[in-house]
Amino acid sequence: MTKLTIPLLASLATLALTSGVALAGSEDVVVENAWARASIGVNRPGAAYMTIRNTGDEAVTLTGISTPLAMMPEIHESRTNAEGVSSMASAGEITIAPGEAAELAPGGLHAMLMRLQKPMIEGESFPLTLSFSDGGEVTVEVPILGIAARGPEG
After folding, report:
1. Cβ atoms of residues 100 and 20 within 8 Å
2. What is the C-alpha to C-alpha distance for residues 110 and 106, in angstroms, rounded to an integer?
3. What is the pTM of this model?
4. Are the beta carbons of 76 and 114 closer than 8 angstroms?
5. 70 CB-near residues (< 8 Å, 6+ apart)
6. Is the dihedral of CA 77, 32, 27, 128 positive or negative?
7. How far apart are CA 50 and CA 62, in angstroms?
8. Strand residue runs (E) in the chain
9. Residue 64 CA: distances (Å) to CA of 24, 74, 127, 145
10. In terms of DSSP H, where are the helices of 5-141?
């Protein structure tokens, strides 16, 4: 390390410890009931679903997802307006309050897996890493269920 780096790191550590900002960590996150449906080849995106629970005392913010299965994984949200027209768009960051959970489920928030690198085959699984604003990550193994599955129980 250079002589400039050490004082800079010490100053940043002091600022972080004395700023009064309390950040919940990814260590307070529990992922439950992860699952995905089998895909039809790789030309259409896949999706994964789960419950992301914050067991801590402060809010946590999900900032992104990654997986070797897809080149463009994102959290998306499906919505239907008053006229019955459905749309889907990137959800951006998801903040989960203390003691609360974010449900990633069909028809709402979900992990959209675009540009699949291989087909999602029933009976297989893949790793999905959730990234949080504290720099932490949580990786979950997502089982791939049948193409008509409606939940983690099949």
Report:
1. no
2. 7
3. 0.80
4. no
5. 45, 46, 113, 114, 115, 116, 117
6. negative
7. 13
8. 29-37, 46-54, 60-66, 70-80, 86-90, 94-96, 101-104, 109-116, 125-132, 137-145
9. 16, 7, 14, 23
10. 5-18
Q: pLDDT for 28-61, tens place per residue?
A: 999 999 999 999 899 999 999 999 999 999 999 9
Residue 26 near residue 138, CB atoms below 8 Å: yes
Query: What's the token pair of residue 135?
Result: 């720099």
* Chain-centre distance for alpha carbon 90: 12
pLDDT of residue 6: 46
Distances (CA, A) of 146 to 15, 37, 122, 123, 138: 51, 6, 5, 8, 25
